[in-house]
Structure formats: C-alpha cells, structure tokens
Amino acid sequence: MEEQMKLYLESHLSAKDEWIIQLEETAKQDRVPIMDSIGIDYMLNLIKIHQPKRILEVGTAIGYSALRMLEANPAAEIITIEKDEERYQQATENIKKLHKEEQITVLSGDALDILDKLTAEKEVFDFIFIDAAKGKYQAFFESADQLLANGGLLITDNVLFRGYVANPELAPKRYKSMVKKIRSYNEFLTTHPAYITSILPIGDGVMISYKKD
Ligand code: SAH
Ligand code: MG
Predict the structure, then answer these.
(1) Most buried pick, 35, 89, 189, 203, via CB within 10 A?
(2) Ligand positioned closest to the Cα atom of 129
(3) How many domains in the chain?
(4) Which residues have CB under 8 Å from 17's CB, separation 6+?
(5) Domain at 73, CATH number
(6) What is the pLDDT of residue 1?
(7) Coil vs helix vs strand at 104
(8) Which of 65, 82, 118, 128, when mutated, tests ligand 1's pocket best, judged by the most ligand atoms within 8 Å of its CB?
(9) CB of 3 within 8 A of CB of 11?
C-alpha cells in the first residue's frame, strides 16, 4: 500500500530537467542521501510560495538540494554548509558547471562552528533547511533559531527516520540513540512557543516550522 502510494505520488511530480536527473543518478551511485523526491517537491513549493531571499542549508552533500532550491527562487542567495571535504569539492564543481556560483556559496567545515560564526556576524536568513547529522539537530537548531527572521521557515529533513521515530522499539541497536534524539527534537520543536510546527509523513519525514512574526 505505502509503496503504491509512493509510486503514485512520484508519477505526479513535474518533469525533471536533465541536470536534475543526472545529479540524482550520481547520488544513487555514490550512495549520497539526497532529499527524497516527494519531500523536496513539497519544500520547493514552499520556496515558490514564500520567495525567501536568503536561504541557509546545513548539509550540502553534492549540491543537489541547494541547486533545486535556487531553481525554485532564482532571486535567492544560498549559503550551504558541508563538512565532508570530498562532498564539498563535488558540490562546488556541480554548482560551477551549472554557473550558479554567484548565487550559491558552499562553506566547508563543521556546521556547528560555521553556524556560530554566522550568528556572531549577525547574519539573517528567511529560510533554513537542516539536513545533516541527525543526532545534532537540537544543536543546529540553537544557532538556526538565532539566524532565522521572524516570519521565516525552518525545514528539517528525516524527522521520521525510516519509520523508527514513531516505532523506536523496532529500531536496530545502532540507530537507537539517534532515534531517541530525533524524538526529543520533534517534541521540543512541536511545543516551542515561538514556532508553529507540522510534521509531514512524506519522504523520510519533513518538518515545517514557521517562526511566528
Ligand atoms: N541536503 C542534501 C543532502 C545532505 S546529506 C540534498 O538533499 O541534496 C547530509 C550531509 O550533511 C552529508 O553530506 C554530511 O557530510 C553532512 N554533514 C553531516 N554532519 C555535518 C556537520 N556537522 N556539519 C556540516 N555538514 C555535515
Ligand atoms: Mg535528508
């Protein structure tokens, strides 16, 4: 049933340009966990609706989601953070190939350090996408919250991690601690007084948090 639903939804995604298909192929081959097709489709629609001018991403991988977010709002400026040196290089190359290096800046390093720097520099964003180490979501949020303008959107990916977040007893041992952390993050943000948060069971679980104006 669920598989059928997924196929049905995928068959209703709009046609993808060649560069998107190619990046998806590369990601699949190299086992890079890019955002799921249905989840990103929804996030891109949010970007089209809200037209954020400054977007911050935590977890660039090969630049796939950053490039797609830019396509959803070509007027945006995107800053994205990646700590893996090889992926940072790949992302930079992909972005250059598509001539988007003016709009997308990839910062190399641990997001925890870079977010601190951006906060110290009093940077402000109107859209923040968190898609990196799932055990660190709470820590990423502490900085992201300071960087996000009122009225802005915070999107967090993988908040239902393979279904284990709702069924922690089914989680293999190696995931137990991460699942516990995601559960406490979800609890924290859905009850946070400054945010209005919804968790959508699409992709690997997409969380939408609106920062009250
Ligand atoms: N947003 C991308 C996928 C990101 S995958 C897309 O949908 O196309 C998650 C990435 O986060 C990985 O490449 C991983 O190296 C990176 N990452 C994990 N922990 C990080 C950290 N603390 N700081 C910066 N990047 C991190
Ligand atoms: Mg993800």
Answers:
(1) 35
(2) 1
(3) 1
(4) none
(5) 3.40.50.150
(6) 63
(7) strand
(8) 82
(9) no
41 φ/ψ sector (left φ>0, alpha ψ -120 to 50, else beta): alpha
* Per-residue pLDDT tens over the stretch 174-197: 999 999 999 999 999 999 999 999
Residue 195, token pair as written in the block: 């945010």
Provide the terminal-to-terminal Cα distance of the chain, rounded to the nearest Å.
40
Tell me the whole-structure pTM to 2 decimals. Answer: 0.97
In short, whether 83's Cβ falls inside 6 Å of ligand 1 is yes
Q: How far apart are CA 184 and CA 207, in angstroms?
A: 14
Q: In sequence order, which residues have a C-beta less than 8 Å from that of residue 169 and are 6 or more positions away? A: none
- Using DSSP's 3-state secondary structure scheme, residue 149 falls into strand
User: E strands of the chain, at which residues?
Assistant: 54-58, 77-82, 104-108, 125-130, 148-157, 195-200, 206-211
